[in-house]
Amino acid sequence: MAGQKNDYGKRSHYQSDYPGNGGGKRRNPEDERESNAIGPEDTVYRYLCPNRKIGSIIGRGGDIVKQLRSDTRAKIRINETVLGCEERVIIVYSSSEETNGFGEDDDLVSPAQDALFKVHDRIIAEEPPVDDQFDGMQLVTVRMLVPADQIGCVIGKGGQVVQNIRNETHAQIRILRDEHLPRCALSSDELLQISGDPIAVRKALFQVASRLHDNPSRSQHLLLSSSSNLYKTSGGYTGPPGSNSGFVGPAQEFSLRLVCPTENIGSVIGKGGAIIKQIRQESGALIKVDSSVSEGDDCLITISAKEVFQEPSPTIDAVMRLQQRCSEKSERDSGDFVITTRLLVPTSRIGCLIGKGGGIISEMRSSTRASIRILSNENLPKVASEDDQMVQITGDINVASNALLQVITRLRANALETSGRTSSSGRYDSGFDGYGSYGGSLVGGSSYGGAYGVYTGHMKQ
User: Fold this and answer.
1) Diameter of the chain measured on Cα atoms
2) Are residues 267 and 329 in contact, defined by beta-carbon separation less than 8 angstroms?
3) How far apart are CA 357 and CA 355, in angstroms?
4) Which of 236, 237, 246, 255 has its CA 20 to 30 A from that of 283?
5) Distance (Å, rounded) from C-alpha 300 to C-alpha 362?
6) Distant-in-sequence, close-in-space partners of 258: CB < 8 Å, separation ≥ 6
7) In this structure, are residues 46 and 91 in contact, taking their beta carbons and an 8 Å threshold?
8) Torsion-angle region of 429 (φ positive above 0: left; ψ -120 to 50: alpha; else: beta)
9) Strand residue runs (E) in 62-102
10) How many Cβ atoms from other residues are within 10 Å of residue 132's Cβ?
11) CB pairs under 8 A, 24+ apart, for 387-390?
12) Which CATH architecture does the domain made up of 226-445 adopt?
């Protein structure tokens, strides 16, 4: 991939943080966890593999994927199956250093791109010899998930880059989003689809992979985090699948409180209570609009449910459905619309959002690009209690939704008792970090990589 140029500029390479062989030194669990993390400058690809072909990548007892890792020195993670989804996400990542020989000319590419094409070739080799043919030529389709903040390097200004790739390779390339996204996608993803004869698709995939290599996503370091276990469905947030450890904690009350402008209450309740009844029914959460404490311009909405940590969260599902209806909407000078969501949090819980030295809140701001503020006491609304603090999230709809989801999943992890106990920084110290801790390992060594469960379904008006 050396020598690839694009409109966005070649990024500078860095010294890899991945450890070498390490001699005979034993690595502790924290070192191991860190070595498997995705760095901000790493090369990352998420390739969608049809469920029926996943065996050609895993192999018996995992022998094929182990060999691919060994041959390429790239990290390869195969995500769990998402209910109702016909594809599984294969995450391929490595240092961006171009160390592997590739192609007939033995050009140097990163280990991740080398692995990407080895995975691609095995999946395409499984294509049926007769289906999807045109004029006697076999047609194949490649689908990849690309973060929204990264897809621009493939599209280019006015679509010029993607059009050039189409012209040079004769492959069909489409950028799809919203209703076209599979259930295993993140709400902030776009779907890149390449179709054509195998040679054309391979050429187009190389050009696309090169541009993604040169332009890493600002949020890619969160792809393996526990927050990405929240799967997107047609109905909304569903949470992660059950823990492989078999541990099931006791059901506990979990609640969240949204501050809603009084003029928005009609949008929350709906005609004859139709909207709020629908959200209650579909989420399973109790939603209380407390007009008795309504003072000034605000009303308090409390969302709660009895929850088990390892199971889907009705409370989070309901909050994500309510967000747009409870938020203030405003227009920037640029003409773009933004929403502001306000959440009341007990002072005893606020530490899990701030972190030591403000590390956690800074991470959330950076990864979501949202304005996330903890307001001082004098700026609290009248509906707040004495021991409350208010979290205020502002951004466009997608940005604000992702930020809210990160905030409330941390609050849930902090509030519910699990096999781990939260530290003063709000992170879990045990291996099971569930919803609340970024960058940790998951139970049983499983590597889920689902989606931010931002609500995208249609509500009654």
Assistant:
1) 74
2) no
3) 6
4) 246
5) 27
6) 300, 301, 303, 319, 322, 323, 326, 341, 342, 343, 344
7) yes
8) alpha
9) 75-78, 87-94, 100-102
10) 12
11) 387/346, 387/347, 387/348, 388/344, 388/345, 388/346, 388/347, 389/344, 389/345, 389/346, 389/347, 389/350, 390/259, 390/342, 390/343, 390/344, 390/345
12) 2-Layer Sandwich (3.30)
Contact between 323 and 256 under an 8 Å Cβ cutoff? The reply is: no
What CATH number labels 41-222? 3.30.310.210
Segments in 304-396 forming alpha helices (H) = 314-326, 351-354, 359-368
Task: Answer for the pair 121, 160: CB distance below 8 angstroms, yes or no.
Answer: no
Q: How far apart are CA 89 and CA 450, in angstroms?
A: 8
Beta-ladder partners of 44: 93
Please answer whether residues 366 and 359 qualify as being in contact, where contact means their C-beta atoms are separated by less than 8 angstroms.
no
User: Tell me, what's the pLDDT at 14?
Assistant: 34
What is the rounded distance in angstroms from the CA atom of residue 14 to the CA atom of residue 95? Answer: 8
Nearest in space to 313 (alpha carbons), one of 252, 258, 226, 372: 252
- Which pLDDT score, from 0 to 100, does residue 461 have? 42
Return residue ranges of the chain for CATH 3.30.310.210: 41-222, 226-445
Which token pair is 19?
Answer: 């450890």
**Two tokens at 76?**
């390869």
423 vs 96: CA distance, rounded Å: 34
Distance CA 95, CA 75 (A): 10
The pLDDT value given to residue 23:
39
Structure tokens at 75: 């990290």
Going by DSSP bridges, is the β-strand pair 100-102/337-346 parallel, antiparallel, or unpaired? unpaired
Per-residue pLDDT, 296:
66
Only one residue has tokens 């009303």, namely: 299
Dihedral sign from CA coordinates of 282, 298, 187, 55: negative
